[in-house]
Amino acid sequence: MVNESVHRESAIERLPDAYAVALRMRDAGLSYAAIAERVGVELEAVGPMLRVAKAKLASTGYDDCSDG
Fold first, then answer.
1. Average pLDDT score over residue span 16-42
2. Contacts of 14 (CB under 8 A, 6+ apart)
């Protein structure tokens, strides 16, 4: 699983900063409120932002099968 984690982190590093931060915070189990505050979006925008982040992650060639 270490190789998978390294591969995923490498893919995340290729994303725009706000999306990378949002995914890392979600992975760490932080609340949507914390994510919203950190990346500077409204709370209601976090869910859609994470969906876009996952799509951007997939566009790097990484298949993110995690829930969220």
1. 97
2. 60
